Predict the 3D structure of the following.
Amino acid sequence: MTRPPTHARRAESRAIPYPRTLSAGEAVMALLMAFAFVAAALLAAPSASGQVFSSTPYTAAPDPAVEQLRNRIEGLESDLKRAIDRTEKLAFDLSQTRKMAEEANTGRLKAEADLAALALRVESLEGGGAGGGSADLTTSSNVQSADAAISLSAGASAQGLSNRVDVSTLPQDEEGLLKEARNLLLDGSYPSAQQGFTAYLAKYGKGPNAHEAQYLLGESLLYQDNYTEAADAYGKLLSSYPKSPNGPNALVKLARSLRLLNKKADACKALALMPQQFPKASDAAKQLASTERQRSNCK
């Protein structure tokens, strides 16, 4: 095989270069240059170790969302405190208002009771005055009756209405016992009057004035709103003392007691007996009966 000429081989070597092997000195110099480049890059970059190992404590920046939530919670706590304070004040005001209302209601009920007692007393005085006899305490003087009406309109005192008298301290003779029991009724001491009339009837139930004591016993019970026993007392007067001058008024009071017991039909039946049983009843008694018929819605 024929070799190409020498100049041809040189030209071919120049066309396709081959990597040249570095000498040891050149390799060391290249390595040093690489280290120098890396060191320059490290010096130019920020030092991370300076941040991590710095003597100044690291403080994180506040989170806006956390701060907003904290402010919101503080605002809610403030609103809750104000609401609690307002609720406590409203509760106190409500308590005071309720107390005032209860006191006003107690006064109203007492006034209504006093007016009702006075109305009953006036009706009794009107009926007794026109019918003659001893009906409705008319055996007392007009001045005493007027004083009794004034005492009732003033409300008599709660102590006088509730305390009971010791019957043994009352006079034991017939006239004195009846008079003292009547005075207790006039003074508004209804429970004590009831005791007095009961004691009188137990001792003098067959005496000439027993019919009056029986009628006044019914009055003392009626004024205590004891309608059941009042009706029994008036009924006993009508059955045991049919000729008593208190009969017409007792019939009306019987009807009234039945009406207040929500027995209006029975009240109307009792009032229907007035023309038959007491055809000569006074005009005042008839007027009281007519008024009671209207209140009982009698046909």
Q: What stands out?
A: The CA atoms of residues 100 and 119 lie 28 Å apart.
